[in-house]
Design brief:
This protein is mainly alpha-helical and about 425 residues long. It has a single domain, classed as Sodium:dicarboxylate symporter (Proton glutamate symport protein, Orthogonal Bundle), CATH 1.10.3860. α3 packs antiparallel against α10 and α14 runs antiparallel to α15. The longest helix is centred in the N-terminal third of the chain and has 33 residues. It is globular, with a radius of gyration of 22 Å. It starts with 7 loop residues before the first helix and ends with a helix. It binds aspartic acid. Aspartic acid binds next to α19 and α21.
C-alpha cells in the first residue's frame, strides 16, 4: 500500500491512534514518561495549532473580501446574512432543547454520591476559580457590549488577537461591500490582489494540513499523559455518556437534514467533512479548525465559495451547537448533583442563556466552561459546581468542537441551497 496516496483523513486517524498508544505507553513510566512527552512530543502539537491559528485571520480577510466583492449586489448579501443568522439561531435552540431533554431523562447528577461530590469540588476548586474570574470579565459589561465589541476601533489591533474574529469579519464585510459600491474599473486591482492572496493562503493551508497527522499524533499523546486519574473520571462517566449521547443526536439531526432537505447522502457529507472533524477533535478549537472546514466545505461539499467564505467564519464564532448542548446538560447535571430541582421556568431560562452563551463563547479550547458560569448564575445553580465537571472537560470539549464545526458545515449547505445562484 502506498502511504503517500492514502486519503488525508486516514493519515490523520493513524496519527491519532499512534498518539493515543504512545500516550498510554508513556503513562506507565510515571514522571519520566510525562516529561518525555511534554519536552519532545507536545511541541509538535503546539506548532500545528499555532500554524492553523496563524492562517485564520489572513484567511478570513482574503476569502471574505473576495467572496463578498464577487457578489453582484448588496441585496444578495443581506439575504444571505438573514438566512445564515436565522438558521444558526434555530440550530442552537434545537441543540439546547435536545440537551435539556436528555439530561432530564437520564438524570446523571443523581448518581453522584455526597463523598464524590466533595472530592471533586476539592480537587478542582482552583481551576474552577480561574474560569469564574475569566467569566466575571464578560459578566460585568452592559447588555449591548457584545455588539460594541464587533466594531473595532483599530484594525491592526483587531488583527493581533484571534479572539477578535468577529471584528475582522466586520471589517472584511465593510471592505467587500465598499468594493461592490465603487466602479468596477477602480476595484479591479484590489480584486486581483485578493484573488491571488486567497490562492496563496489556500496553498499554505494545504501545506499545513500535510503536517496534520503528526500534529494530531502529538496532541493526543500529550492529552493521554496529562489526563486525570481514572477514579475521578469514573464517577463522571454517566454525565459524559449523557453529553456524548446529546452530541450524537445532533449529528443524527444534521444527517437527516442533509438527506431530506438537501438531498445529499450521509456518505458524501461525512467523507467531505471528516478531516475537519478530526482536526476539531484534536485541537478543541473551531477557530483553529476554520481553515480546514472552509477548504472541505467548498472543495468537497461543493458549497459555493461566496457562501462558505461568509457563513463559516461567522459560524465558527457564533454557532456552537455542541457547546449549546453541553451548557444545558452541564448546568442541569450540576443542579441535580446539588439536589436542586429546577422549575420549568428555570429550564426555559437555560434555553435563552445557553443560546446566548454559546453565541458568546470564543472558538477556543475550554471557552464553553467559561461561559457556563453565566448560565449557572442565571439559573441560580451554585457556580462552585464548575469544579465537578472539570476532570472530564477536555475530552468532552474535543467532542463538542466536532459538533460545532459539523453544524457550521450543515448550515452552509443549507444557505448554499436557499440563496439563489445568480
Ligand atoms: N472548544 C469549543 C470550540 O472551539 C468551544 C467550547 O469550549 O465549547 O468550538
Amino acid at each position: 500500500m502506498n502511504l503517500k496516496r492514502l486519503p488525508l483523513h486516514w493519515k490523520i486517524i493513524i496519527g491519532m491512534v499512534f498518539g493515543v498508544l504512545l500516550g498510554f505507553l508513556m503513562s506507565n513510566f510515571g514522571q519520566f514518561g510525562k516529561d518525555l512527552i511534554s519536552d519532545w512530543i507536545k511541541p509538535f502539537g503546539t506548532i500545528f495549532i499555532n500554524a492553523l491559528k496563524l492562517i485564520a485571520i489572513p484567511l478570513i480577510l482574503a476569502s471574505l473580501i473576495k467572496g463578498i466583492s464577487d457578489l453582484k449586489d448588496i441585496s444578495k448579501l443581506s439575504r444571505m446574512g438573514g438566512i445564515t443568522v436565522t438558521t444558526y439561531l434555530i440550530t442552537t435552540v434545537i441543540a439546547v432543547s435536545v440537551g435539556l431533554a436528555i439530561v432530564n431523562i437520564i438524570k446523571p447528577g443523581n448518581s453522584i454520591s455526597e463523598d464524590t461530590r466533595i472530592e471533586l469540588l476539592n480537587a478542582y476548586e482552583d481551576d474552577a476559580d480561574k474560569k469564574r474570574e475569566a467569566a466575571a470579565e464578560t459578566k460585568n459589561s452592559g447588555p449591548l457590549q457584545p455588539i460594541i465589541d464587533i466594531v473595532p476601533s483599530n484594525i491592526i489591533n483587531a488583527a493581533t488577537d484571534n479572539k477578535n474574529m468577529l471584528q475582522i469579519i466586520f471589517f472584511s464585510i465593510l471592505f467587500g461591500i465598499s468594493m461592490i459600491l465603487i466602479p468596477e474599473k477602480k476595484s479591479k486591482p484590489l480584486k486581483d490582489f485578493f484573488n491571488s492572496l486567497n490562492e496563496v493562503i489556500l496553498k499554505i493551508i494545504d501545506l499545513i494540513m500535510s503536517f496534520a497527522p503528526y500534529g494530531v499524533f502529538a496532541l493526543l499523546a500529550t492529552l493521554i499523559v496529562e489526563a486525570p486519574k481514572w477514579d475521578l473520571l469514573k464517577s463522571l462517566l454517566l454525565y459524559s455518556i449523557t453529553l456524548i449521547l446529546g452530541l450524537f443526536l445532533l449529528i443524527i439531526i444534521y444527517t437527516i437534514v442533509v438527506r431530506v432537505l438537501l438531498n445529499k447522502s450521509p456518505n458524501f457529507f461525512f467523507n467531505g467533512i471528516l478531516p475537519a472533524q478530526l482536526v476539531a477533535f484534536s485541537t478543541s478549537s473551531s477557530a483553529a479548525t476554520l481553515p480546514v472546514t472552509m477548504d472541505r466545505v467548498h472543495n468537497n461539499l461543493n458549497v459555493r465559495k461566496e457562501v462558505s467564505s461568509f457563513v463559516l467564519p461567522i459560524g465558527a464564532t457564533i454557532n456552537m451547537d455542541g457547546t449549546a448542548v453541553y451548557q444545558a446538560i452541564a448546568a442541569v447535571f450540576i443542579a441535580q448533583t446539588f439536589g436542586l430541582d429546577l422549575s420549568v421556568t428555570a429550564q426555559l431560562g437555560i434555553i435563552v442563556t445557553a443560546t446566548l452563551a454559546s453565541i458568546g463563547a470564543a472558538a477556543v479550547p475550554s471557552a464553553g466552561i467559561i461561559v457556563l458560569v453565566i448560565v449557572l448564575a442565571q439559573a441560580g445553580i451554585p457556580e462552585a459546581g464548575l469544579a465537578l465537571i472539570f476532570a472530564v472537560d477536555r475530552p468532552l470539549d474535543m467532542c463538542r468542537t466536532v459538533v460545532n464545526i459539523t453544524g457550521d458545515a450543515t448550515v452552509s449547505m443549507i444557505v448554499d441551497k436557499f440563496v439563489s445562484k445568480k
